[in-house]
Specification:
Molybdopterin biosynthesis moeA protein, domain 3, 8 helices, six-stranded mixed beta sheet, Molybdenum Cofactor Biosythetic Enzyme, Chain A, 4 domains, binds adenosine monophosphate, binds magnesium ion
Length: about 425
C-alpha cells in the first residue's frame, strides 16, 4: 500500500480502497431534517423520525392461546375430571369470574376469567350435557398468553431510524398508531450522459443503443423510497453537462448520473464537476465500477456512476445505497450482510482490484449451497445481472480453488 493509503494506480490516478471510499462518502451524507406525518399504510418503506412508545399494554389482559376450557387447576382431580360449564367466553367478550368447581368454555384470544389459571385444549375434552370430561390435567398457566408479554405501556416499540417493513406496520397497528412520523423522502436528481442513447419505444438509429441505465437507476432509487427529479439524457458536451449539474443541484438533495466519468474526450462529468464544484473522490479499487466519482456542486452531493450497465448497478449497491440510507436517516449498520459458501469453480486469475462478480447462490445435487460465477466478466452484459441472484466478493490478488469459501451478497441485501 502506498503512502496515501491507495491500493493501486490507474493512469497515474491512485485508486481508493473500497472501505476508505465508502467512509469518505458516508462522512458527507447528511440526514434530512424535515419530518412529515403519514398514515399507517403510507409509512411502508419510510424511515421513522422518532421512537414510537406504546400507549397500551399488549395483550391488554391474560387471554386464551387455544380453543378449550378455562379451569382452576386446584379444582381438578386427576384425569377424567367432570365439571359443569358455567359460561361461554368468545373472543371480543369479557366473561364473569369463574365460579368455584366449574369451567368456562373459552376461545382463542378471549380474556381468561378471574379465578381461572389454565386453559385445557378442546382436543382432550368431551362435552356431555352441560358438563365437560377432561382427560388431561393442565399445569397452572397452560395455554394462557399473559398480559404485556408482547409490549408494556410506555415501552419503546420501534426505534427512530427504523425503515418500516410490513412487520413493523403490523406492530404499529397493534398498539393503535395511525399517524406515523417519518423523515421526508430524499430527492434525487438523475440523468444519463451519452449521445448514443435513445429511449425505449423510439427506433434505434445507427450507432445508437437504448438508455437502460435510467430505468435501472430509477428503480433502484424508488425501491429505497427516494423521490426523483428525472432529467433524461444529457448530450456529451461540457456546456450541457454543466447546465444539467447546476439545474440538478438546485432541485435535489443528491445528484446521481450514469456515464461520462472516464477520461475520454467524450466524458464530461468529471471536468464539469471540477469546474462547478469539487471532486472528492474518483476511482475506486473495485471491479467493475472503477471510475466511480463523488463530489459536490455547491452543497449538493453528487455520485457519478460509470455508464456500463453492470458498473452502474454494482456501484449503486456498494456506494449509492448506503449513502442514501444514511441521508434518509436510517440508523444502525448500513452494511449489507454477506453469506459464505463454497465457490463452484476455480478462480485462477484474480484481479488487482476487489471483484464483485455476478453470481448465483444455488443448491447443488446434494442440497448444499454453492456460488456459481457468470461466464463473462464484461460490465456491458446486462443479462448477467438478470441471471445472477447476488454478487460474489472475490478478494483482490487471491486465486481461489473450487470449494474454497467466498463471501456472497444476495440481491435481497442490496435491492431494498
Ligand atoms: P461511458 O461511461 O459513458 O464511457 O459509457 C460506458 C459504456 O456504457 C458505453 O458502452 C455506453 O454506451 C454505455 N452506456 C452509457 N450510458 C448508458 C445508459 N444510460 N444505458 C445503457 N448503456 C449506457
Ligand atoms: Mg459516454
Amino acid at each position: 500500500m502506498s503512502e496515501c493509503g491507495c491500493s493501486s494506480q490507474s493512469g497515474g490516478v491512485p485508486l481508493k480502497p473500497l472501505e476508505e471510499a465508502l467512509l469518505l462518502l458516508l462522512s458527507h451524507a447528511r440526514p434530512v431534517t424535515e419530518v412529515e406525518e403519514v398514515s399507517l399504510p403510507e409509512a411502508l418503506g419510510r424511515v421513522l423520525a422518532s421512537a414510537i412508545t406504546s400507549r397500551i399494554t399488549m395483550p391488554p389482559w391474560d387471554n386464551s392461546a387455544m380453543d378449550g376450557y378455562a379451569v382452576k387447576t386446584a379444582d381438578m382431580g386427576g384425569c377424567g375430571t367432570r365439571l359443569p360449564i358455567s359460561q361461554r367466553i368468545p373472543a371480543g367478550s369479557t366473561g364473569e369470574p369463574l365460579a368455584p368447581g366449574t369451567v368456562a368454555r373459552i376461545f382463542t384470544g378471549a380474556p381468561v376469567p378471574a379465578n381461572a389459571d389454565a386453559v385445557v385444549i378442546q382436543e382432550v375434552c368431551e362435552e356431555q350435557g352441560g358438563e365437560v370430561i377432561i382427560s388431561q390435567v393442565p399445569l397452572p398457566g397452560a395455554n394462557i398468553r399473559r398480559a404485556g408479554e408482547d409490549i408494556r405501556e410506555g415501552a419503546d416499540v420501534l426505534a427512530a431510524g427504523t425503515r418500516i417493513e410490513p412487520q413493523h406496520l403490523g406492530l404499529l397497528a397493534s398498539v393503535g398508531m395511525d399517524r406515523i412520523p417519518v423523515w421526508r423522502r430524499l430527492k434525487v436528481a438523475i440523468f444519463s450522459s451519452g449521445d448514443e442513447l435513445v429511449m425505449p419505444g423510439q427506433p434505434l438509429g445507427p450507432g445508437q443503443i437504448y438508455n437502460s441505465n435510467e430505468f435501472t437507476l430509477e428503480a433502484l432509487l424508488r425501491s429505497l423510497g427516494c423521490e426523483l427529479v428525472k432529467m433524461g439524457i444529457v448530450e456529451d458536451t461540457l456546456e450541457a453537462t454543466c447546465r444539467a449539474l447546476e439545474d440538478a443541484a438546485e432541485q435535489a438533495d443528491l445528484i446521481m448520473t450514469s456515464g461520462g466519468v472516464s477520461v475520454g474526450e467524450e466524458d464530461h462529468i468529471k471536468p464539469a464537476v471540477e469546474q462547478l464544484g469539487r471532486l472528492d473522490l474518483w476511482k475506486v479499487a473495485i471491479r467493475p465500477g472503477k471510475p466511480l466519482a463523488f463530489g459536490h456542486i455547491g452543497d449538493t452531493p453528487f455520485i457519478g456512476t460509470p455508464g456500463n450497465p453492470v458498473s452502474l448497478f454494482v456501484t449503486f449497491c456498494l456506494f449509492g445505497r448506503p449513502f442514501i440510507l444514511k441521508a434518509q436517516g436510517v440508523a444502525g449498520d448500513l452494511r449489507p450482510t454477506p453469506v459464505t459458501a463454497p465457490i463452484a469453480c476455480d478462480w485462477p486469475r484474480p484481479d488487482k482490484r476487489r471483484e464483485f462478480a455476478r453470481a448465483r447462490l444455488e443448491l447443488d445435487d446434494e442440497g448444499e449451497a454453492r456460488v456459481s460465477l457468470y461466464r463473462s466478466r464484461s460490465s456491458g452484459v446486462l443479462s448477467s445481472l438478470a441471471w445472477a441472484n447476488g454478487l460474489a466478493i472475490l478478494p483482490e490478488g487471491q486465486p481461489l480453488e473450487r470449494g474454497e469459501l467466498v463471501r456472497f451478497l444476495p440481491f435481497s441485501e442490496l435491492l431494498s
